[in-house]
Amino acid sequence: MPIAMNFDLLTNNNHQDRCEHINEYETSLEIKLSKPPLSNGTNRQSTSFTVPPPPLVKPRIRPIVNRITHNIDLEQLSRCSLTHQINLPKFENEKWLAISSSNEYILVGGGSSSTLHLFDLQGKQIRLIDIKTFAAFDLAWSNVLNAFLIAGYDRLQMYNVEKDQLTQIENINLINKKDNYFWSIACHGNDIFIVLSDGLESVWRLSLPNFKRIQTLSGSEIRESNTDDRISCIRTNGYSIGMTLRQRDTYQWRVDLFDYVTMTRTHRGLTIGYGIGAFNFVERCMLAPVDDHQWLIIGGCKVTPNALTLMDDRTGEIKQVERQSDQQEKFISNICTSENSKQPQIITMIIIDNQGGQRQMHIMQQ
Predict the structure, then answer these.
(1) Confidence label for 360 from pLDDT (cuts 50, 70 and 90)
(2) Which terminus of the chain has fewer Cβ atoms in its 10 Å neighbourhood, N or C?
(3) CATH classification of the domain holding 350
(4) Dihedral sign from CA coordinates of 221, 224, 228, 230
(5) d(Cα 297, Cα 307) in Å, to the nearest integer?
(6) Percentage of residues in the chain with pLDDT exceeding 90?
(7) In what order do the strands lie in the sheet with 8-9?
(8) What InterPro entries has UniProt attached to this entry (predicted)?
(9) Domain region containing 68
(10) For the residues 315-326, what does the mean pLDDT come to?
């Protein structure tokens, strides 16, 4: 049964000019679920600690004109009824794979492997890429560089598909490579956002094409006091920055949104589900932007319920669809979307069968 979800918009009543979220919908946000929420109290936040409120900020105002909205059929996507299915090589004991897509290619791999697989959008494998490091923890596509960015254990790399060229970014220095690594990465326009060391250290904003660091936030500025222990994923749609975070005591996974310019929290508290307290790839909550206000979210291998979630940060509408009973052992371990709004939205998912170990990639255009 879906988790009851609380999506809070942080506002400042002293602001004269308020974000369009408030102008249109105020703060009573409607929550839509595929089933009634839990009523036994398991969806409540832990009361063993007090979370201090974050600073009040004014979110970035978005123009309504020419806004692109993609209609997502969540039930259909969860059933994978209209997806193009590709069987991936079986990786022993691999519970997670990195994935990213451009408008022409899909790059898959990583986890605990140094080999990436390049596919076209029809699922035909083009080539294998050896990234020459321990693993790829996350992937992102950059239109500015016309290349994939690869966040790894001890380095950040980019891969140019047309040139079949792998290049290490040399002017990024980690102080202590043993304790710091590139955990999650997102890219939009000339901006790159990087989460270091499983979210325990800091979040960087880099500027393209020279990879100059222009903003740094410590993990304590992102996590709420001592109640959060992990940042798993960072993504952006150019208006907001989304991060998945886990609470230390309850193992609740939630999605927080931050202003694109100031990187200050604007939304807090969408609870996706509950984990088991595991780290690294066994328990990794991921999200993907659909357009400038919708986000797709998956819990991963060890997060319950096994569901696919769609949230709209403009209206506050939240939908969560559990996977069918005959698919409960098949977890969506990762998800990504294409960036080109002029073409049909391309959604790619990695599904792992816990029992058989089969890895499948599902590609869907909406």
Answers:
(1) confident
(2) C
(3) 2.130.10.10
(4) negative
(5) 9
(6) 32
(7) 8-9, 265-274, 252-259, 240-247, 228-236
(8) WD40/YVTN_repeat-like_dom_sf
(9) 8-365
(10) 81
